[in-house]
Each structure stands twice: as C-alpha cells, then as structure tokens.
Inverse folding.
C-alpha cells in the first residue's frame, strides 16, 4: 500500500485553521506596530517559509524581505552560541527595523545569535516573531515579543518543520509516531 505522510502522524497539535488564526493575530499586531516604519522581514530558511509567506500576505503595509540560512554548531556546548551562516542577507541592515521570522524557537540559541549579529551590524531594532514556542527547552534568555502558540516539548513536524527533511509540506503541525524515530 502507498505510504502517505499522514500515516506517520500520531496527533495533530495545531490544525490548519488554528495556524491561520494565530498567523492573522500576529499579522494584525505587527501591522499596527510597524505601519509607516518599513520593516525588513528576515525569514530563516528553511522551516520559516510557509509561515513567512502567509504572515506577510496578511500585513497590508510596506515591508521588505530577505532570507538567511544558518546551521547550529551543537549550540549548547558553545558559550557564544555561534551558528554557521550558510546564506547571508542581500540587504544592509544598517538603521533598519528588523523582524526575524521563525517557525519555532526551541533552545533559543539560533535567535540569540542572530539578534546580536544584526544589532552588531547596525540594525536600529530587532524583534522576533515565531509561530511556535517551546518554553520548556529554552537555554537562552531571549525576549520574543510575537509568539503564535506555546507548545509542550514534543518533536513536531509540518508547515515547514521537518524530520530528516521530510514532512515540511504537511498543512498542519503534527506529532510524529515514536516508531518513525527508531
Ligand atoms: O531555538 P533553537 O534550538 O536554536 O532551534 C530553532 C531553530 O531550529 C529550526 O531550524 P533547523 O536548524 O531545524 O533548520 P530548518 O529550518 O532548515 O529545518 C528552527 O527553524 C529554528 O531555526
Ligand atoms: O520540534 C521540532 N521539529 C522540527 N524542527 C525543530 N527544530 C527545533 N525544534 C523542532
């Protein structure tokens, strides 16, 4: 029998409808806070792509857009939390108001590093928006102003989030069946 992605999902944690609702609420807040300020939205590849696409279309204000791709060095063992930049920005951040867009914040290491990097490059302000937040996993003290939904410490996939580069195209956030890991 044909194997479908859905066969590997134990439970739907955040439905398509709930994702849409969280996204709209975040977009409304960002629209209100950033109108007239032309923020630079920076999407962190690859996981943030579906969320970024939906979020920016729900923000009827002037924005600009760029992307970064980063990879962690085994973050928790590094006190500086350094991450490797695989793709850097095309745009200068000097004096820009930045909104970093993420699908999920887990340890907080990626955003801790990126926020400090962009401030050191002369950004005027840097705020973080994430669809999902896993507070139980946090090892970095970072302020995340815009959070869609806080979730328990499950490994989740879908809507951009992957396991071994699979499941990113599921339209909802799901918990994987344990046997998929083993
Ligand atoms: O808070 P942290 O512990 O730093 O984890 C969060 C990071 O991990 C995920 O990316 P991942 O490295 O899996 O890359 P991907 O988006 O390409 O899947 C996610 O998109 C964040 O960038
Ligand atoms: O729960 C997760 N799923 C997929 N990628 C992730 N990166 C951090 N947390 C997760």
């Amino acid at each position: 029998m044909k194997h479908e992605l859905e066969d590997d999902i134990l439970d739907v944690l955040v439905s398509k409808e709930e994702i849409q609702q969280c996204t709209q609420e975040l977009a409304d807040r960002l629209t209100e806070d950033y109108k007239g300020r032309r923020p630079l939205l920076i999407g962190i590849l690859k996981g943030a792509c579906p969320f970024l696409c939906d979020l920016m279309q729900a923000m009827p204000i002037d924005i600009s857009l760029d992307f970064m791709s980063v990879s962690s060095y085994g973050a928790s063992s590094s006190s500086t939390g350094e991450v490797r930049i695989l793709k850097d920005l095309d745009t200068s951040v000097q004096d820009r108001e930045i909104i970093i867009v993420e699908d999920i914040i887990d340890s907080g290491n990626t955003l801790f590093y990126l926020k400090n990097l962009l401030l050191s490059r002369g950004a005027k302000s840097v705020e973080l928006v994430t669809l999902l937040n896993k507070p139980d996993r946090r090892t970095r003290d970072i302020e995340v102003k815009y959070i869609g939904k806080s979730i328990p410490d499950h490994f989740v996939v879908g809507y951009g989030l992957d396991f071994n580069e699979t499941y990113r195209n599921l339209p909802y956030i799901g918990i994987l069946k344990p046997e998929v890991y083993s």
Notes: The radius of gyration is 16 Å. The beta strands are 9-14, 40-45, 64-72, 83-87, 97-105, 125-133, 146-150, 156-157, 173-176.
